[in-house]
Amino acid sequence: MILLEMKRYIRENQQVSTDDLKNRFDLDDNALQGLLTPLIEQGHVQMVSSDGGSCSTGNCNSGCSSSAKEMVYWTSKRLKSLNIAVQVQG
Prior knowledge:
The chain is of the alpha+beta class. It has a domain at 2-53 and 66-74: Arc Repressor Mutant, subunit A (Orthogonal Bundle). Helices cover 37% and strands 14% of the residues. It is built from three helices and three strands; from the N terminus they run αβααββ. The chain has helices spanning 2-13, 18-25, 29-41; strands at residues 15-17, 45-49, 70-74. The protein has a three-stranded antiparallel β-sheet with strand order 1-3-2. 6% of the residues are buried.
């Protein structure tokens, strides 16, 4: 049930932070990863980590505690991983 609610929430918002998901659904890191894994594997969402180098204030280095964030993005088309062997000759 919570997986469907989370899927709907991400789809409606298009992008959410992992912190937002943890707070909204009252989850710890491991539980969130466990719920996101099937959505990622099915290609419904994509997870992207930022380096924390910039924030909404434009990287002013004001001493704020902005840290790296992980964002979860809804994908309009299912993304599937392809296992393709690539051989490079030099």
